[in-house]
Design goal:
The complex is a heterodimer of chains A (325) and B (235).
Chain A: E1 3-12, E2 15-25, E3 30-34, H1 41-48, E4 56-61, E5 64-65, H2 70-74, E6 77-80, H3 92-102, H4 107-121, H5 136-148, E7 154-158, H6 166-179, E8 184-189, H7 192-198, E9 201-206, E10 209-215, H8 216-224, E11 226-234, H9 237-245, E12 250-257, E13 262-270, H10 276-286, E14 290-296, H11 300-324
Parallel strand pairs in A: 3-8, 3-9, 6-7, 7-8
Antiparallel strand pairs in A: 1-2, 1-4, 4-5, 9-10, 11-13, 11-14, 12-13
Helix pairs in contact in A: 3-4, 4-5
Chain B: H1 2-16, H2 18-42, H3 48-66, H4 68-76, H5 79-83, H6 89-111, H7 113-121, H8 126-151, H9 157-180, H10 183-192, H11 194-202, H12 208-234
The chains are: A alpha/beta (325), B mainly alpha (235).
Bound molecules: adenosine-5'-diphosphate and magnesium ion (MG).
């Protein structure tokens, strides 16, 4: 277990930014920490990296408690904060050497590490430049580079692609995927596709609480509890809908007349039953040709929207009751 | 070891920016001016008035030298690098402190030209000159520790500079208050007064109690700074 959080809470003044969260990350995993702005991602990462202690709960990095044994724990952490922590008046090379120094990398190894990382992260062309003169994309690379100096087991990356252009985003993601082969990574994002592109597992956080943890590929199926299909059939409306209703496992039907004699339907079935064959035989028996049929898997994006809208409507209700009273 | 890394970086940052050179130049210019006018007009082989003016100039310069030490890290977010690295807050604070002390030492060493000049053309009392320099060094380092503390209070450098200067000024005022009061109050204020103690050094007296006083104040402010940096994370 490289990262282990138990009942971690952070209160700012009277406001709970992180509310009793627990999770763990195994060696070698790339975990996405997903949530909308203000969900508590940055706060959680600041606690994981020992920048600030939790109000309550415990955090262990590579077995070391971040509050009790901060120096030992921090030896295992590389951290890229939301804004990369760069000394603008230094050259890329000098800065990375400095970081190696405070990470406790011995001088000889430091030179080798800086050399290797400059190549890995693609900073060769700008190594002698002052950091303040670099583009945003390059600054982000320097940020990544400083996080991996000293070969920490755990990389904590806070929204590593935010504010970059699409080309830079792709480059940074590729670097992260490459880093994932050697490091345990937790990266936060509010961009859904990023998670499915980069991460093995996802932790969804909203309003300081964890709402879901699962393998990226399982997440949509696990959360939806149902399968959905899109189907286009030629035939009379009533009869088409009736024959679908007779199929075992169908839980919901939304039908709409398309043009002349075709019906467009969205059909839902329970998650454990695939009704595509049943639909085919039912319509074949009636002599209604199927013009189109496909599975609609919830994209992670839809799942996510669902999660947040649920929370929001809950809030609105609370507001309404107050107004009514 | 880690402290040394912090110190080196701060020194680079001083000497890669024009500010340190400007301030150093200003310091040497003013003290050189005092030296030339005083020595040439009075023909006394005495350094204490020049040393005293150097302290006055450093009162204004030290808050500028120290104001960014910690505030800038908070502002730009580099504190996130420092505080999440396997480094203690003590290492960070002391490293930064010594970087400014080093800059101050460089300035002082350059002013050694004045006593050397005196020595070449007359026979000054080297003992009292050395005593004077010890005092000038100690009080300057005290200013630095106060400025460092001020820098930990806010992420705004300018405000940190103003606070630092105000604190130093307060210690100046304390010695005036000593003159206002009588009896026990007078004794307390005089005990706290930096400048009465500085005068002892300038008059050629190195009292252990004065040395201990300055070192205690320095350690006190360094300790406070460490506490402030540490405490902020728990808020
Ligand atoms: N220093 C702070 N003081 C007070 N509230 C804060 C502070 N930092 C963050 N918050 C609040 O805590 C919540 C979580 O913020 P944050 O962790 O930055 O979320 P995220 O990174 O997911 O966008 C937000 O409501 C934010 O306003
Ligand atoms: Mg954030």
């Amino acid at each position: 277990m490289m990262i282990e959080l138990k009942n971690v809470t952070k209160v700012y003044g009277t406001r709970k930014a992180v509310d009793n969260i627990s999770f763990s990350v195994d060696k070698g995993e790339i975990v996405g920490f997903l949530g909308p702005n203000g969900a508590g991602k940055t706060t959680t990462m600041k606690m994981i990296t020992g920048y600030m202690p939790p109000t309550s709960g415990t955090i262990k990095i590579a077995g070391y408690d971040i509050v009790e044994q901060p120096i030992e724990a921090k030896k295992h952490i590389g951290y890229l904060p939301e804004v990369p922590p760069l000394y603008l008046d230094m050259t890329v090379e000098a800065y990375l050497h400095f970081v190696g120094g405070i990470k406790g990398v011995p001088p000889k190894k430091r030179r080798e590490d800086v050399e290797r990382i400059i190549h890995e992260v693609g900073l060769t062309d700008v190594r002698k430049r002052l950091i303040k003169n670099l583009s945003k994309g390059y600054k982000q690379r320097v940020g990544l580079a400083q996080a991996i100096i000293g070969d920490p087991d755990v990389l904590v990356l806070d929204e590593p692609t935010v504010g970059l252009d699409p080309k830079q985003i792709k480059e940074i993601r590729d670097i992260i995927k490459e880093l994932g082969k050697k490091h345990t990574i937790i990266l936060s994002t509010h961009i859904l596709p990023e998670v499915s592109m980069v991460c093995d597992r996802v932790i969804i956080i909203n309003k300081g609480k964890i709402v879901a943890i699962d393998k990226t590929e399982n997440l949509s199926a696990a959360l939806q509890n149902s399968r959905r299909y899109f189907i286009k059939v030629e035939g009379p409306y009533e009869e088409v809908v009736n024959s679908l209703k007779k199929i075992e496992g169908v839980t919901n039907i939304e039908a709409e007349v398309d043009s002349d004699n075709t019906i467009k339907l969205t059909v839902e079935s329970s998650a454990d039953k695939d009704v595509r064959k049943d639909m085919f035989f039912a319509f074949a028996k009636k002599g209604f040709p199927i013009l189109e049929l496909k599975m609609l898997n919830y994209s992670l994006e839809e799942v996510f929207l669902e999660l947040t809208t649920e929370e929001e409507s809950y809030d609105e209700n609370v507001g309404n009751t107050k107004e009514g009273a | 070891m880690k402290m040394w890394e912090i110190l080196k970086r701060e020194l680079k940052s001083y000497f890669f920016s024009p500010l340190a050179y400007v301030l150093l130049g200003f310091y040497l210019l003013i003290s050189g001016y005092f030296f030339s006018t005083f020595v040439l007009s009075t023909h006394y082989a005495v350094l204490s008035p020049i040393l005293s003016s150097m302290v006055t100039v450093f009162m204004f310069i030290s808050p500028i030298l120290t104001m960014r030490l910690i505030s800038e890290d908070m502002k730009t977010g580099t504190d996130q690098l420092l505080l999440t690295s396997p480094v203690t807050v003590t290492d960070i604070v002391i490293g930064k402190f010594f970087s400014t002390v080093f800059v101050y030492l460089v300035a002082l060493v350059i002013t050694f030209l004045y006593p050397i000049y005196l020595k070449l053309y007359s026979s000054p009392d080297m003992g009292s000159i050395i005593a004077g320099y010890i005092g000038v060094f100690l009080i300057g380092v005290t200013f630095i520790s106060i400025g460092l503390f001020a820098s930990s209070l806010t992420e705004n450098q300018m405000i940190a500079g103003v606070i630092g200067f105000a604190l130093i000024l307060m210690f100046w005022l304390i010695s005036w208050l000593g003159d206002v009061f009588t009896g026990k109050a007078k004794a307390i204020f005089q005990n706290l007064s930096f400048f009465d103690r500085l005068n002892n050094f300038l008059n050629g007296l190195v009292n252990l109690s004065d040395v201990v006083f300055f070192i205690s104040v320095i350690i006190f402010f360094i300790f406070l700074t460490i506490r402030v940096v540490d405490k902020r994370r728990w808020s």
